[in-house]
Amino acid sequence: MKLRDKVVVVTGSGGGIGAACARRFAAEGAKVVVTDKDPDGVEEVARSIGSVGSVGDITSEDTVHAVAELARRTYGEIDVWFSNAGYTGPHQGGSIGDDGLWDLSWRLHVMSHVYAVREVLPAMLERGDGYLIQTASVVALAMHPDKAAYTVTKHAALSFSEWLAATHRPNGIKVSCFCPGPMLTPMLLSEGFPADHPALRGAATPQEVAERLVGAIDAEQFLIVDSSTGPDSLRGKAADYEKWVEGMAFAVER
């Protein structure tokens, strides 16, 4: 899909990769609606691309509806909904985590995607065209040894994307799941890694990520990755599940 003249909603676009994607999509000629919990970020990004923005918690179905209505009032029916907002949560060191973390992770990484699809899919099906994009993580293809809730809900996000693609691609609906590795965003930088940590050395900039996404959307590619780590993990799991689990256990012990 070419982004020119398309109406695009990007959640979590007040900063990080969401902001970079909003700017890059707008540069392609898309009509981008910005939404985030951060009012300053929404105002700055929307102003920079000459668009509109909405401040709110995307884990609320009412917020999703309000954002969609803003997009429709301003530009018309939504062509692309990019469910990008996410939260890694604290390192848990093997702890499962409390109910609050699990509830937030589930609502943000799964239900916000569900609410978006409920909101925009009927109109997309009626016209036989539309694009649904969900950000998961390379963790959805592997795991994060210190973050149980993040790992499980990112796997669920990928599974939901797979279901959408298998069910609705025949109806003209494009679906992509973005499973990136480390990115140089406030989320990663807040982890407190030393400057020479491998996660920082190999991390992509938000601008590099946005460029990759434009190409993947143009190609209507389902699985969008930025390294071989995730696919290698999937192949390892398929080839020898026991060996894969042992390798993950070794990673936890280290």
Keywords:
14% strand, 254 residues, 52% helix, alpha/beta, disordered C terminus, 7-stranded parallel beta sheet
Provide structural commentary.
The chain is α/β, with parallel strands linked by helices and 254 residues long. The longest helix has 29 residues. 43% of the residues are buried. β5, α5 and β6 form a beta-alpha-beta unit. It has a seven-stranded parallel beta sheet with strand order 3-2-1-4-5-6-7, with helices on both faces. The C terminus is likely disordered. The radius of gyration is 18 Å and the shape is globular. The chain contains ten helices and seven strands.
In terms of structural class, how would the helical and strand content be classed? alpha/beta
Summarize the helix and strand pattern as letters: EHEHEHEHEHEHHHEHH
Mean pLDDT: 89
The end-to-end span amounts to 43 Å
Instruction: Please state roughly what percent of the residues sit in beta strands, choosing from under 5%, 5-15%, 15-25%, 25-35%, 35-45% or over 45%.
Output: 5-15%
Strand order of the largest sheet: 3-2-1-4-5-6-7
Number of strands: 7
What is the count of DSSP helices, taking H or I runs of 4+ residues?
10
Query: Which sheet architecture does the biggest sheet show?
Result: 7 strands, parallel
Radius of gyration based on Cα positions: 18 Å
